[in-house]
Structures are given as C-alpha cells and as structure tokens.
C-alpha cells in the first residue's frame, strides 16, 4: 500500500464505516426479530354469589338417662342449611345409634375400655322444623347427649380432613390427635367425652388458637359422664394438635378415662375456582384478576401466583381488586382456586394467558386507582417502557352489570356475581390491546350497564420476550453484626429496584462478593446469580473483622452496594474465636411461650469446627434489640422466667443476667415470651475478663399479635352500648346505616394490648369486615356491606389500639366484626385474624311507602271502602334496601299502616309474612270513612313496625280518598225512539254529590233479563237492547264518571217498562231507600211522553 497516497486513508475510513453501519443494522434487525410478538392465547372466568365464614349458632337442651335411650333437643336458633353436631357418651362399650328421624350420619363411635363409648352424629337442617334426634343403645349403661348447630359449613364436604382422636387413661386431661387442614377459614372442633361427671373442661393446650365453648354437659346418672364441645377459627391451613383440655372435678368425680377428637369443618364457598384458559402452554404468562365485595375481604392466591397489586375502594360500597401473575409450566392443573379471609357478598375473577411474554420479567409497568360512583370507570394512563407491549386492563365495581370495553381494547372477561342489572354483588371486565409505541397510552374508560357505583381500575404492560427489564438501584447486604470462627455466618443478599429496597429487582442478577476468598475466608458460593434475594454462607476461621461489599455486579447498579445490621448501615462483621450460637428463631406470637430455642457456647478449633465451651450453670448476660419498630414501647422479653433488658436498633448497651444450664454439648434451652409485637433479635454475652466478651446474636424474627380485641362497641350518636343480641327478638342496638363505634386493639395471648403495633417503620394496620351471625348465609341471609373507616393505618394507633367511630352496617340482623392485618401479612409473618362477639340487633332505619291507588287517572284516587295496593320497603339510612327484613329469615316484624299515625278507619292494614327481601305488599288494605257525607281526604300512608321503625313525611306516599256512589236515574220516552238513561259515578264534595270526572276506572256490568232487568207492560227483552258506552254485553268502564246508557227503540205498540238494577261495587252502594246501602236502580218506560217544555199545565179531557 502506498502510504503516501492521501486518498487511501479516507477511503479505508469510509469502507470501515459502511461495514460497521451494515453490522449495526443487522444487529438491530436481529434484536427486533428476537423480540417476539405477544399474542392473546385465551381466557376464562368464574363467579361466586356469596361466601360465609362458619359460626356457632348455639346448643340445645341436653338429655341424660340411666340406660337405653336419650332424646336431646336441637338448638332453637338454627336455620335451614345449618350443620347439627351431636355428641353422645355412655358408660359402656355398647354401640350407639340414632333411630329417628332419618338423615343422620354417625361420624365415629369409639370405645375406651368397657366404661366409655364416645359417638358423634351429624346432619344438615333441611327445614325450620327438624325433629329432635332419638339415640339408643340397647341394654347399655347411663348415657348423655347434646347438640349444637353451625352455619356456613360446606354441605358437599362438611369435614375439611379426617378427624383425629386420642384415648386417655384415668387422669384429669382430655387429649386429641393432630390433623392438617387444607382450606382457609376452617372451624376446628374439640369434642371431649369423659367417663365421669366432671364440672368443667378447659382447653389448656390451644395450638395457638382462640377456643370458645359451645357446651359442657354432665350427668351423675349411673357412674356419671360428661361431654364438651369447643370451637376455634383457623385463618390459614396448617397442622393443629394435639389439643389438650384439663378437667375440673365436681364433688363426686375422680380421674376417669376419656376420648378427645379434633375435627375441622370446611366453610361454605371456600374459594373461587377459575379454569386455566384453553390452549395455555408452557412459558405462557397468565394474568389473573379477582374482584370482591366488601373491600375488607383479604384475597389469598393459590401457590405459584405472584401479587401484582391489591387495591381497595373504601367508599360506602366497598370492594377490592387484586391482580396476580404466573408463568405457566408444562404441567398446569385444570384450574386454580383463590380463597378469602372472611365472608363476602360476591366475587368474580378471570384469567388471561398470553404467548411471547418475557417470562423472567413479565410486567414492565403497572398502576391502578379507585373510581367514584358512576357507570363510567377510568384507569389512569401508563407508559410502556418499550415497543410492542401488551396492555392488559381490569375494571370492576360493586354492583352487577355488563361492560362495554374502552375504545380500541378487546374484551376477554365480562363477569358478574349476580344477575345483571342489580345494585348488589360485584362485576368485572378484563381487556387487552397491543401497544406498538413506547408512549403514554392515555386514560382508558369502560362503561357498565347497571346503576352507578364505586369501583377500581388497573392497567399493566407486558414485556415482549427479549424485551427490556427494570432498573437495578443497588445491592443490599444484610448480616447480624457478629460471627464465630467455627460456624458459617448467613449473609442475605438483595437486588433492590429502589433506594429503600422496598421493591426487589425482578430480573436475574450476578454479584461477586467481597472480601475475596483466602485460606481463612470462604464463601458458600461466589459469585452468585439470583433473582430478587438470596442467602449465602460466609466462613471465617480466624479472629478478624472483615468488611463486606461487592466487587462486580451484572447488570450494573445505579448506586453503590450497602450493608445493614438491622436498621443500622454497617459493613463491618467481626468474627471471634468463641461465642454463642442461637438456633434459628421462627416467627412468634405475642404472649405465647416459644418452642425451645437452643443457645450454644462454642469455641473455634483447628479446621474451623466448633466445640463446646461450657457446661453446668452459668449467668449469661442477655438482651433483646428492637429492630422494627426501632425503639420499643417498654415491654420486655422474658427468657426462662427473667425479663431481659430492652435496646434500640442502633445498638446494645443494656443487659440482664439470666441463669442458664448448659448440657454436655454446651447447649442451654431457652423459652421466650414477648408480650408485644414487632421485629426483634436476641443478644447473649459472657465476660471473659480483661474487658473482653464472648457473645452472639440470634436472627431477627417477628412477633405478631395473638389477635385483636373488640371493646367499647356503642352507638356513636348517644353512646348506647351494644346489647350483643343473639336472636331476631333480641334487644335492638341500632338502625341500619347509622354509625357505631368500636375500639380495636392488637392483643397478646393474655388479652393485653401490644403497644408496638402501628409503630413499625411501615406501619401495619387493620382491615375490617363483617361476618353474618343471623340470619345465616346458608339460610339465605345477606352479609350486607360494612361501611366506615375499614382500613385503619397503624400510624393512627395509640398503645396498640384505635377507636373507629364511623362504622355502619346496611342491613338487618346480627353481625360480628372481623379484623385482619391490612396487607394480610404482619411484617412477613402472615395474617392475624379475629372475630368479635355478636353486634346487634340491627333494624331498618325507616320504611318508604308506595301506593298504587285504585284508580290511576290524571288525579289518582281511591274510594272510601275500596282496597288499594301499598308496597313497603325497609331501608337503611342511605335509602338502600335491607334485604334481611324477610319473613322467611325471621327478621321481619308486624307492620301496621295508618294515616300519619292514626289507624282509625283502616282494615286489613297489617303486614308480616308478606315481607321478602325487604319488600312487602298489602293488596287488601281498605280505608273507610265513618260517614258517606265525608268530603275528599288525602291520607299520608305511614308504616310502623313492632320495633318502632316507621316511615316519615319524606318517605310516605299519599292517597286521595273519595266518598262515592253510583247513581242511576229514571227515564221515559216514545217506543219509536231510542231512550237514554243517566248513570254517574258521584262523589261527595262537602255539600252535594257531583260527577266524579276522574273516574274512568269503575266498570258497569250490563244487566240481563232475570239478572238486573225486569220487564213489564207489553215490553219484553226481545224488543229492546241496553248498551253502555256503545257496548251491549260484559262490563264496561265509565268515561269521566259517566256511563252512556241507551235502550234501543222497541217499535210501534211495544210499550211498557223495564226496571234496572246496576251491580255496583260495595264502595259505590248507597242508602237509596233508607234501609241500608244497596245497588242503584231505576225504571225506563216506553210509551210515555215528556211533553213540550213550554207547556205549563196539561190535562186530558174524557
């Protein structure tokens, strides 16, 4: 090459540039080709009308006898669909049977030697008049039986799993076996059968559950026997048992054999089952949306589904929408089931599946918002982060209707929990649209067909396969602040998508950790590749302080790596030759003693292995550190009976000496009780002399509330205390829709407040809902809607409690409040659920009355003595129907109709059995004036029930009442001409009877010969025909109060008369003859003449 030629370098430059340009274009084409197009694969949808939690509806009267048979009474408060559970215990080993009625099933019959036969029978109530069961055991010994009723149990599968029983010898405890439930919200039953007449049985080993007694019954017949039934609500499925009860002896009882059985009842409508969309294959991405009312209900996804966002609308008709994602595998089930933390009034759901979605990071961006009451619901715009993203939208609201999708979007799911269009239940639409550009998509609005209501809207954008991922903000390294040279330290590594690490980076991350490995330092794995977070072991076998960090991160993070010890930023991790090692401490429950925690005193030896350092009794300095909240409210952790010192998250300076006994393996056993809540960790140290210590820290663990206490439940307006009614005739508490108050307190197992609750870094709160006590959901009752401040942020709590003063319930009956952790997961340790006692009785706020007058003319009216149709609606304070005001449910009352409180003159004016779904119609009510000479009167139709609920001037319809009669006048004329007669509907105007021009409703039946017509003279029925308003037979309505009666001319020489009686309705009869009210009558005469109007006197000359 001629290097002196100035043209060559320039040419070479352009050739190189062109080659690079072509390569770049090819690369871009390749990338674009690798980014697969997202395609809609399929959809499915489902709904459940309502779901309920299980509740105890009381027990009946027990029965006991010396031998042969017993006949216990069923509970009085049961409803159709309730499950009866009857326990029977006899002092023998003779089989027990139920001989009548039919339909009972024996679940078990278990003998304990020759002195105890324990049996359980069950049956679902199919009517409100079930016969009491008759139990026999021929030639047996003394026997006792009692029955309880439970509502909300699944009739198809009443028992969630096999029962677990255990026999006990002659002692003072009753034990059960253990079982594992599979359905959230199961009701656990502890059935105790005892072969002596003990005075009580108290559940002493609770399994972490709150137990309530349904009944305890004992009898001294024969050698004595007793039975007991306790129940407890389980929030999440899991293993329970053994449960242990301790008996209290009566004056004559002694240690006796017993049988204990643990059962689990499955709740009705436990979940929403949605099929996997047809055609879904491995690596497809599925988006599921679940919408439920009320909004306080928690939504529990099936295993393998990840929550995208949960949104609650807390307006007067509350609802919740939760969106989930899942990447399909090669072995997808036919369907998935979502379950719910409490009863609901309707739930709908759908699944959409898509191909061509990035399975590592499916969702590029998403957002959601609540919507105000309307038929148009708008989702706020989102902006896709790259081209060719699939937009998926969900729109829901708290009524049942059908949807019209936003412009340009395709509808894939349109579901309602009740028949459209109704103002109850829940409905939801899911839509999709491919977005070609990475620009804001604009607001999206969907329209629903039913009445206006509040709702929720959500949009998300799916990443195409090969598309971009989010941003890695930094790597976070978490450790406990100390380690020993003989045991690896667990280090937690998180890839954070934001500065606070509240969101984890969703894509794969590779990190090389520092320090590098040496002869004394080794990592379990380094570098590490993970998604979101992981943990890795770090072993350091000589005493030194290392500095944790990272030396390489892929992809690169925006910010430097950070290290934390609890809430304090710290990358220094000292390793010492001797120290304490705590066994892993799991999540705890406030006030409940932990399982045994091991504390081992160790020293390093050659090769980095641990050897015991101490045995026998030692005083160990112990402390606990408040991690979240970073400072505690003052309650102390108790270790083996000693309260230990409190320290903030910033460091440990205070300790308490605790005597511990170490075994030959240098291990001491610790039992921990913490009466408060939050994240804490334990610290132990022992002075070695010279100012040095051996020490160790436990892992950070969560202590969650034992439950929630409900107190000070009262009407907000006047502080009237909740009477806690349990039947439809119980004391009235409040009108539907009116506000009441309740204090809700996070409590430990002793019922004491946990003041740390709500003081967490991100304050935990509670979400309130209601369950229905009576009428039961299984009998058709509606759980209604709980209103008010249902989502209580923890920052509003004081000393672990909060008073909410704006609660309301919109129906009739008895409820219980249900409290859950607001996000369903207290500091990552799971939900806490609690149910209050009975709240009620709730009654309607008022009635509205609507009358259909007997005559709906331009001026509608009803005659005195004539019946009208009156429809009553039982309403809450907002004017919505209280559907539980229903005769069949037992919560309707006798309602009396009046004129603004005055019932004088009314007959057939009460309603009771007519009420269904909050509406009752009286088609027989009659109002009668005391005298026919009563001028028109307007009635204000008022409804008042036996509870004092009434309508008022704003909700009362009116009816104009006339005193009327039907008037018929004589007529005469030539037989050669048609003859007209006067028939009038008349009303008394206060001084005279006048034509009622408003009456075009009264029908006049045309009389016939022998039935209202009597002919005389030469006149017969064949000679003339009567018509009224042109009609010659049947019944014809008057026109403006007039009946145009015309007799056809009979013809020459056909003279005579016809007497006429018109069959008037009873309210238009009149005292025409002074002998009582009769039908109107008159005579039509042919062959007589009226004469000239100008003639003063006329006389024939003979």
Write up what this structure looks like.
The protein has 1 helix and 93 strands. It is an all-beta fold and 1102 residues long. It folds into 7 domains: 55-265, no CATH class; 270-462, no CATH class; 474-576, Sandwich (Immunoglobulin-like); 581-704, Immunoglobulins (Immunoglobulin-like), CATH 2.60.40; 707-835, no CATH class; 846-962, Immunoglobulin-like; 968-982 and 1002-1086, Immunoglobulin-like (Sandwich), CATH 2.60.40. The strands form 23 sheets. Strands 49, 52, 55, 56, 59, 60 and 61 form a 7-stranded mixed beta sheet that branches. Strands 2, 3, 5, 7, 8 and 10 form a 6-stranded antiparallel beta sheet that branches. Strand 7 (105-111) and strand 8 form a beta hairpin. The protein is elongated, with a radius of gyration of 42 Å.
List keywords for this structure.
mainly beta, elongated, disordered N terminus, Immunoglobulin-like, 7 domains, 1102 residues
